[in-house]
Design a protein that fits this description.
Layout (H helix, E strand, L loop, with lengths): L1 H14 L21 H35 L1
Length: 72
């Protein structure tokens, strides 16, 4: 009787075991998804904000240079 209960239980456990990890030499390359319109719009605003910040810093540095030159 034990064999009739134990054998199906062992078969179920063997079927539920985790698969082996993939071979590192044959790893699939990740695929980049095409950005959604929302992501594209957000990236556009983010890029514009970075550009505006860089422009403001450049102008502030130039004004500081001019002010230093005018006071000497």
């Amino acid at each position: 009787m034990r064999a009739t209960v134990l054998l199906p239980l062992l078969c179920m456990l063997a079927a539920c075991s985790a698969p082996p990890p993939p071979d590192p030499a044959q790893r699939p390359e990740p695929k980049a998804a095409t950005p959604s319109p929302i992501t594209t719009t957000a990236n556009t605003y983010k890029d514009a904000a970075h550009t505006a910040a860089e422009t403001a810093q450049t102008q502030a540095a130039e004004q500081a240079k001019q002010a230093d030159a005018a006071t000497q």
